[in-house]
Amino acid sequence: MEQQKVLFGLVGFPLGHSRSQEWFNARFALEGKTNAEYRLFPLNVIEEFPSLLRNEPDLAGLNVTIPYKEKIIPFLDELDESARSAGAVNTVRITRRDGLITTKGFNTDAPGFLKTTEGLALKGPALILGTGGGAKAVEYALSLKGIPFSFVSRKSDAHGILSYTDLTQGLIRSHLLIINATPLGMHPDTGSFPPIPYQFLTRDHFLYDLIYNPEETEFLKKGLAMNTRVMNGWQMLVSQAELSYNIFMEGG
Ligand code: NAP
Prior knowledge:
alpha/beta; binds NADP nicotinamide-adenine-dinucleotide phosphate; about 30% helix; six-stranded mixed sheet; six-stranded parallel sheet
């Protein structure tokens, strides 16, 4: 008997950088889940989310990426503890019963990020560049690890948030962990990078870029030129995707 098709996918915009489709379809093939498929659903605005759920009746789960990790929250019926604590959602489980659609949001970015830091001697305090969904997941993960941090944002007016022009030699020297959670440097805009004073970096610094496409961003290249340790976002992508996969499979 033919199994019913189950559809999963990614919402965000744009999606040209994403390797989630490749990862999930390879995983379905490996597990022999021939009825499962993962597709990209670029949404121009998040208001298109409810019609996507109605128009794709086989859709059972979604990942959420830039720029909707926070914007999707009002469209969901329920959040689990990880999504509530992080204030951002990257995984949505969709349940359909008697024509009723219910959605529950999760955050696997935070535990995914945490997993990649196991065994690394990370010294804080940290600077988190950006204040979006990825940055919020990192915030939650660093809180769990007990590493103090400050955000750096283009919006310098918010209380306790640094602006890029605040980043003096002293601030850079006292923050040995710097995490890029902005899209600066992401494909196709590979020539861009966060405007921090790279000349003050030392070999004691650790630069972590959430971006994985390209593998080595300008941010990481500039760190390597100053002999810092670096990590890109590929391991985080894989760790959070594994956790999302488990959430999807629990739902099916
Ligand atoms: P997001 O929610 O849209 O947030 C991005 C943040 O970056 C914004 O809130 C903004 O903060 C800052 N930003 C945006 N454009 C900027 C610019 N031109 N100059 C300086 N800052 C800018 O996006 P996200 O979902 O957090 O994703 C951010 C990046 O992390 C993306 O490249 C994404 O692919 C990557 N990511 C990777 C993983 C992984 O598994 N490896 C997981 C999550 C995210 P301010 O307005 O405060 O400046």
